[in-house]
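Translate sequence into structure tokens.
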Amino acid sequence: MADIKIRLTKSLIGCKKDQIATAHSLGLRKIGNETVQPNNPQTQGKIKKIVHLVTVTEE
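Result follows.
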């Protein structure tokens, strides 16, 4: 499977605790952090939960 690059573009301040936990589980802690994750259903579910906070690009 292809990998996807996820970048945190908006602040986690004011977000629900579960959204913050989801971002942290992806390795995103500060604005501008990027991580490369495998493109699988688990990762897609996490992205869907915080889609308003991140930008996603395929590698």
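Note: The mean pLDDT is 96.
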